[in-house]
Amino acid sequence: MTPEVKRLLAERDSRIAELEAELKEQREEWLAERERLMKELDTLLKHCQAYDQRIDRLKFRIQKLNMKLYGRTSEVLEDPVVTEHDLFAGQPPATKEEKKEEAKEPQPKRRRGPRKPLPANLTREPVVIDIKQEEKACGTCGDERRRIGEDVTEELECIPAQIFVRRTIRPRYACPKCKNGVTQAPLPPRLLPQSGAGASLAASLIVSKHLDHIPLCRQERIFGRHDIDIDRARMSSWLMTVSEKLEPLVGLMKQRLSGCFVLGADETPVKMQLAKRAGPRGKAVKTCHMWVYHG
């Protein structure tokens, strides 16, 4: 290779290195410019969002002013068929016996006896929760475990116009040769553990009490017609347990309402009958309030 060729190759390599350095420098400048433009775009978007919110507030204020200037000034309903006080309109009034039952003084707590078995005439829907096939083999000797018994958990379920008992059967297995323990499938999670009420029965109690306005004393008599003995105190305990489990859902609803731009609220007074008069001249009826929020 001649010296002239070597010189040309060296000049070529030097020029290539210079171009690469220039491209790298330009690329860094472009990236910095891109970062600056992205930040500028975020700032402009935030300004646009603030302007949109201000426009919404001004539109709402203009609408309120128009309603005040040109809208109706009377708040009387033209056809007040049902007012806000008629919360339970259409429901027959309670009889004297029902009022006496609901107004009885709370009895002192007494020790409860064993829970009565569910009526045998109810339909049983067996649900067998068995262990896996590979778990039936003994871990020590490898022989197949034999079924030595089962645990039956009965829950009272309720569907519209039908009441049945769900039987959860969990067989137990043990090796007759090694006798090193018993294997059994775990019990699935339950809404009301340590009780004979299923999730559908709890849902039916909630709907009947709070939506259909059927007090627990009447629901107790409804179950009595099916020869099912469930006192109102036990049903009330179930509802309180379910209300505790619904607290995360209520918290999520409050969190969503807190982010609303406009929040509407309604206050409805309700007369509640007290179990005992408050003082010698106290009233047996107390005025309570229910608030409904809409975002």
Task: Tell me what the structure shows.
The strands form 2 sheets. Strands 1, 2, 3 and 4 form a 4-stranded mixed β-sheet that branches. A two-stranded antiparallel sheet has the order 5-6. By secondary structure, the protein is an alpha+beta fold. The chain has 6 helices and 6 strands, in the order H-H-E-E-E-E-H-H-H-H-E-E. Strand 2 and strand 3 form a beta hairpin.
Find the structural class using helix and strand composition. Answer: alpha+beta
Q: Tell me the fraction of residues in β-strands, as a range.
A: 15-25%
Largest sheet: 4 strands, mixed
* Unreliable segments of 5+ consecutive residues: 76-90
Order of helices and strands: HHEEEEHHHHEE
Could you list some keywords that capture this structure?
two-stranded antiparallel sheet; 19% strand; alpha+beta; 295 residues; 4-stranded mixed beta sheet
Short structural summary:
The chain has helices spanning 3-70, 96-102, 199-211, 216-224, 232-245, 247-258, and strands spanning 123-128, 146-159, 162-174, 182-184, 264-273, 285-294. It has 295 residues and is of the alpha+beta class.
Give the topology.
Elements: H1 3-70, H2 96-102, E1 123-128, E2 146-159, E3 162-174, E4 182-184, H3 199-211, H4 216-224, H5 232-245, H6 247-258, E5 264-273, E6 285-294
Parallel strand pairs: 1-3
Antiparallel strand pairs: 2-3, 3-4, 5-6
